Amino acid sequence: MITKELINTIIEEKLTSDECYLVDLKVSAGNKITVLIDSLIGINIDYCIQISRLIEGSLDREVEDFELEVSTPGLGQAFKVHQQYVKNIGRDIEVIPLEGAPLKGKLTEVSDECFTIQEEKKVKIEGKKKKELKTFSHNYKFDEIKSAKLIISF
Q1: Which of 115, 120, 121, 152 is the most buried (most CB within 10 A)?
Q2: pLDDT digits (tens, 9 = 90+) for 132-154
Q3: Is the dihedral of CA 104, 36, 68, 4 positive or negative?
């Protein structure tokens, strides 16, 4: 039987030695294996092919047939692991907290327990006619949010 633990054991050493990390790993009941990998400097298609061949070479299709997909997380997908937050420091993200309204801002800091985003917002200043742009800092613990994802801008 093909399990997540088996696939993880196959690729763990290679990913670690190449300074890459596992974002998500799924093995469905029909042996459809989906592996999402990334690194702080990004992953190219050739590296996905290397990981795919490593997995295929370690499994025997004669014993158990499987479908395999190795890729990087999509641009619009929510962050799943801590390293994705670290990779995106300095970029704009959208955070959906467990309580409260969604918030967009620049990811400025990431620690083991939480992260900080800076939101720029126009606010009314007493005694002035025009609204002024102010920066607000928001700290979130990872367990206080539903999701966070990169905002794509062109």
Answers
A1: 115
A2: 889 999 999 999 999 999 998 87
A3: negative
Prediction pTM value: 0.87
Pairing of strands 114-124, 103-110: antiparallel
Name the residue ranges covered by the structural domains of the chain: 4-71, 82-150
Q: Specify the fold of 82-150.
A: SH3 type barrels. (2.30.30)
Side chain identity at 78, as an amino acid letter?
Answer: A
Q: Which residues of 23-58 are buried (b: 16+ CB within 10 A; e: fewer)?
A: beeebeeeeebebbbbeeeebeeebbeebbeebeee
Give the pair of three-digit tokens for residue 77: 């997908």
Question: DSSP for 110-150?
Answer: E-SSEEEEEEEEEEEPTT-SSEEEEEEEEEEEGGGEEEEEE
Vertex 129 angle, CA 125 and 130, to 5°: 75
Length of the chain, in residues: 154
Nearest to 4 by CA among 79, 82, 66: 66
Neighbours of 143 (CB within 10 A): 8
CATH class label, 4-71:
alpha beta
